[in-house]
Write a structure and sequence with these properties.
alpha/beta; Glu_race; 2 domains; Asp/Glu_racemase_AS_2; EC 5.1.1.3; cell wall biogenesis/degradation; binds D-glutamic acid; globular; Asp/Glu_race; Rossmann fold; four-stranded parallel β-sheet
Length: 303
């Protein structure tokens, strides 16, 4: 027997490759999903991210679920072509409209933001009375009520569509410089104007009267308005954003699959917008992502 002979076997089990430096794909109708992308970057600082903001077709909220499902298919296919190892639908409306279809279509794992938010709410509530604020499409889909009650059928869910919050968050981005939360915090006289507080009270007072102790911010734009919303519902109501919970899910899935980026991987962040104004995306996006955005490209999808 030739003792120098070596047999190369495919690696399996403990010896299998334990990292994957391909990027994570994240998308939303615009800037809101950057609240999710920044949590992923915080929790998984070695991961590269490809982010797409579909600003040209924002808002998704007033559209039909069928139409938004079509957008999810289009954007998911585009991200898969870019070699992503996992897709995060960082938009509640798009999750409600297209998550299960996307999971059946794409060759990589796809996660949404409704289930993580529902789970966090079900864990947080003590009196089992949970409020949900979201876009019209998300509320009409009933996705949160189903997801929360799937975890605990004894929880009563009260949902309200708050479409003007998307508008207010977008307006906040157009004002001044610096992280957007500085302009939406209670200490800022610049941004929380009486008119916005009036809108917030109109939306949220009925929920407060339902004696909720937990409120799901069921739209990825809404964490940007935490201070405004929290100021109206009061300290006794726990605000739930799915961003952090979704980032934990990403970490979990990648680690289970041995697909986290390697320790020495230098992450890259690539941003794309379908909007006309790439410079606007760069400057507003940086205020949500809280890091300078260098690489921004424009993508056009056939209508
Ligand atoms: N960010 C989207 C969501 O989470 C809402 C914004 C829109 O209406 O496009 O539902």
């Amino acid at each position: 027997m030739d003792t120098n002979e070596t047999t190369i076997e495919p690696l399996e089990g403990a010896d299998a490759p334990r990292f994957d430096n391909a990027p994570i794909g994240v998308f939303d109708s615009g800037f809101g999903g950057l609240t999710v992308a920044r949590e992923i970057a915080k929790e998984l600082p070695r991961e590269s991210i490809v982010y797409l903001g579909d600003s040209a077709r924002c808002p998704y909220g007033p559209r039909s679920l069928d139409e938004v499902d079509g957008f999810v298919q289009q954007i998911g296919a585009w991200l898969v072509e870019r070699g992503v190892k996992l897709v995060v639908i960082a938009c509640n409306t798009a999750t409600a409209a297209g998550l299960s279809h996307a999971q059946r279509t794409f060759p990589v794992p796809v996660i949404g933001v409704v289930e993580p938010g529902a789970r966090a709410a079900a864990h947080a509530t003590k009196n089992r009375r949970v409020g949900v604020i979201a876009t019209k499409a998300t509320v009409e889909s009933d996705a949160y009520t189903k997801a929360i009650r799937h975890l605990d059928a004894g929880i009563t869910v009260f949902s309200t569509a708050t479409p003007r919050f998307v508008e207010i968050a977008e307006q906040g981005l157009r004002m001044a410089e610096g992280p957007i939360e500085d302009f939406t915090s209670l200490v800022s006289t610049v941004y929380i104007r009486p008119a916005f507080q009036e809108i917030a009270r109109e939306y949220l007072e009925p929920l407060r009267r339902c004696d909720i102790d937990t409120l799901v911010l069921g739209c990825t734009h809404f964490p940007l308005l935490k201070a405004l919303i929290g100021g109206v519902v009061g300290r006794d109501v726990t605000l739930i954003s799915s961003a952090q919970e979704a980032a934990h899910d990403v970490a979990h899935i990648l680690s289970r699959r041995g697909a986290l980026a390697s320790e020495d991987h230098e992450p890259s962040y690539d941003f794309y917008t379908t909007g006309e104004d790439v410079e606007e995306f760069r400057s507003f996006g940086a205020r949500v992502f809280r890091t300078d955005i260098d690489r921004v490209g424009r993508v056009a999808f056939p209508s």
